[in-house]
Amino acid sequence: MLEKARHLIAPSARSDVPPFMVMDVMAAAARIEARGGRVVHMEVGQPAAPAPLTARRAAQAALDLGDIGYTEALGMPALRAAIARQYSELNGVTVAPERIVVTTGSSAGFILAFLALFEPGDRVAVACPGYPPYRHILTALGCEPVMIEIAQATRWSITVDALLAAHRRTPLKGVLVASPANPTGTMMRPAALRELIAAAEREGIRFISDEIYHRLDYAFPAETAAKFSDNAVIINSFSKYFCMTGWRVGWMVAPEALVRPIERLQQNFAISVPTLSQVAAAAAFEGRDEMEAVKHGYEENRRILVDGLPGAGLTRFLPVDGAFYLYADVSRFTDDSFDFAQRMLEEAGVAATPGIDFDPVDGKHFVRFCYAGSAADMREAVARIGGWLQRG
Ligand SMILES: Cc1ncc(COP(=O)(O)O)c(C=O)c1O
Fold first, then answer.
1. pLDDT (mean) for 338-363
2. How far is the CA of 325 from the centre of ligand 1 (A)?
3. Which pTM was predicted?
4. Which atom of ligand 1 is least distant from the CA of 46?
5. Which residue ranges have their beta carbon within 6 Å of ligand 1?
6. How far away, in angstroms, is 36 Cα from ligand 1 center?
7. How many CB atoms lie within 10 A of CB 34?
8. Nearest alpha-carbon partner for 223 in 235, 211, 231, 212
9. Which residue has the higher pLDDT, 67 or 96?
């Protein structure tokens, strides 16, 4: 009987995706804090600031009215229109509101995009290092993620040559890029993005652009893929710039031909995105000044780390272009970034994410620091890391 039950509830092979190791770091940090210890949190990629006041007020007003029903599967028309308007105001590109799909965070956008674009068995290129759920969602959906290693020589992004080389080995159906990227914090120059999109489309490779860290650009302005192609699928979110991680609301810009298929998928999967979050998101755009102030805080944090970490002993890191990540090369100290991150947490009280979460090959030599906290935390982290590395 027990054997039969075990057989019945055996998990599917597709659910066998790897865990996110940052969760282990978070759990270890929580244990230290429970003992009364102090931890500077730089492990989780989320803003410390709350959602814009305009968004919170709009949600409160909607709650008071109490009328929180389903919305259209593609999202509230007012929110879709507000999102579309941003593209003309910020990027000078016209995007029809009909092409906007509101999603449950960008995370749901990936599932919808992959399902609408790919068949099981299709190969999709992603950067290595890269955001792990790209690979894990593709795998769970029966697609094959193809990791393209990125390096200093190509300014840490997928190049046309690398894409075409992978495509020649075994044909690709898609490629996904993020700029600014997680975990590297690096960005693609607009011309490089344009060339990559053009090359992909010439070869019939569908292009997905994860623009979740747009507006958090410090080195140079990030450009949207919408500027270069109507066929690119763009994925974005209110989680990062708008500090709304827990509200779970994002959006896609879909090519016209995909809007109806995505609508049907969303109708069946979710009916609609939580209404309260959509109301808040529509009002978030009016909180621009507040969010720009938060962004300036990240810029200051970035300056503290870029100026301070070399003196503390971490002399090598990738270009700190955007998002709120600094990806540091710790190969001088270790071949095991998980052990390094664990010791840095226990002995220096600084929590960061081991690179192996993002890169099974070279990640053992890297640690990711998130600088979305306070400036005081950044100064404390630099001092603690410096003292710890000196003690050896
Ligand atoms: C590169 C990247 N894309 C997507 C996401 C998912 O964000 P959300 O689902 O909150 O929009 C994250 C979250 O950290 C991320 O770093």
1. 94
2. 13
3. 0.95
4. 14
5. 45, 105-107, 131, 178, 182, 210, 212, 237, 239, 245, 250
6. 31
7. 8
8. 211
9. 96
